[in-house]
User: Fold Protein YfhM from Enterobacter cancerogenus.
Amino acid sequence: MKPFRLGALSLALLTAFALVGCDNSDEKLQAAAPAATTTAAQKAPEKPNAETLAKLAAASQGKPLTLLDASEVQLDGAATLVLTFSVPLNPDQDFAKTVHVVDKKSGKVDGAWELAPNLKELRLRHLEPNRNLVVTIERPLQALNKATFGTDYEKALTTRDVEPTVGFASRGSLLPGKVVEGLPVMALNVNNVDVNFYRVKPESLASFVSQWEYRNSLTNWESDNLLKMADLVYTGRFDLNPARNTREKLLLPLRDIKPLQQSGVYIAVMNQAGHYNYSNAATLFTLSDIGLSAHRYHNRLDIFTPEPGKRRRAIWRDRHAAER
Assistant:
């Protein structure tokens, strides 16, 4: 076993054993809420000030306006059409009048053009997957230096196919029980998930952690052995509803689920609602107001604790001893 893995397992065990005997909170619970997004809403880039515009215009003076590239890229988790030009575009124009995208099957593609901060890229976000598109650019499109596109351009492209996916954003989490916001997941075009939560039996904890080995999924065969060491405490359906065709990080709300108020080590096993697979997304997490998490760097080990609680007897395990 690698030293880092052994050290990490030791920390997990240390945290988990400290949980045994912790008091549960008697605070009243509120109604459960849908999953919440952790991604800030996308804001349109601000227009450069007059001084910046003047400098950009001067730097590109006399240069022609041409198209360098037209392709699909992933931008903030969303499929985006990006048109890259040779010189900055004039931001004071209606791009919808000169730049068009048409789906060969359904017609004009909805959406608004977004001009990048460098003024050289036009972006159209949230493309539908596996679609045949035609991009056209008309002559009047204008650059910041007053040059125009000068020709009619057309290009056909097919957007990438996208399969709905969902999984946990971490292979393991330490969540402070009193202020826990939720369990992070990554979702793409999956609106609902079913999740089974298991609490690891204290007497089986050491054996369970040694067999878990940083998994991010659990097969039916593996679950027969591992889940014997845990009790099923809650099964629920969560509404994710991520933005269409956008990979989003969301939080499964745990605070208001009464069976998950007890401190302990848990396993969460998740599948897309209505779909049954041989292997399902899984993660291990700890609910506690005491514990440790460690970040290992080249020349140091930083240790963090959650919200301070009552004074408790300090426990120290030598890292080098754990690696031997």
